[in-house]
Amino acid sequence: MTTDWKNAVNGFKSYLRIERSLSSNSVQAYLNDVRKLSCYIHENKNEKSPSDLTYQDLSDFVAFTAGSNDSAKTQARLISGVRSFCRYLLIEKIISDDPSALLESPRTGMKLPEVLSVDEIDKIVNAIDLSTPEGHRNKAIIETMYGCGLRVSELVNMKLTDIHRTEGFVIVTGKGNKQRLVPVGSVALREIDNYLTRRMTLPVIIDQNVLFLNRRGRKLSRVMVFTILKKLADTAGIKKKISPHTLRHSFATHLVEGGADLRAVQEMLGHESITTTEIYTHIDRSYLRDTVLMYHPRSKHKKKGVL
Fold this sequence. Notes:
Elements: H1 5-19, H2 24-44, H3 55-66, H4 72-91, H5 118-126, H6 135-148, H7 152-156, E1 163-164, E2 169-173, E3 179-183, H8 186-199, H9 222-236, H10 244-257, H11 262-269, H12 274-277, H13 285-295
Antiparallel strand pairs: 1-2, 2-3
């Protein structure tokens, strides 16, 4: 079966949205990867159609992109996008063999995420000026992100109807529009209520059911949340390079350090694979060391007087 690049890319877009239920950001990232491949093929491979792609074509493309200054992580993500495209071509029977099967991703290594201590999070919260119109909103944002381990996209899309105070849970819509229940603590709920009292004084509210709004009554952007956190961290004198995701990493790390079950943390974070969550077991090295010394048969301390 033969198809041109335009039809293949459009079909791939529908496949990602409908069959894989990916978020708009993920769909766009995959499409960008395939468009890079398409441009390369047009310019270097006599405008081959998607149905004529070979392993050598893809290998040459990977080598070509590796010549840029992209990081290994960026390169690995690009290869992942190409593999997904080839998988789609196979499903649609546009190709009969997967030319991406033997592609090797670069070794990215494991980069431990930046984590804030509880004291540093307290400093950020204390840096909020509650006398400003946005003060209570910003405090509720920090407490909700850290208290529930949310992604920034999950925070800005949270609705008033997602909060279930009596049960102590919030409904979180994550990647691929998958929903999960996450416990919400009394501190976050209190700050949300404080904010909602002041939210009512906005001159106009456009997005009525959206929880966190800007001064024009519309949903906050992800960039705005980043800006809020960055300014607060600077005011608090925190020198670490942080982002909204740092609060999510800190949430998970503090749970693991406190002895939380990894499966429970996986559920709260909305990770599909436990492997993704396991990175947090590498952060608290003292906890791991104590566990080994206490439980491993070759590490247990001998009782006094026993050979």
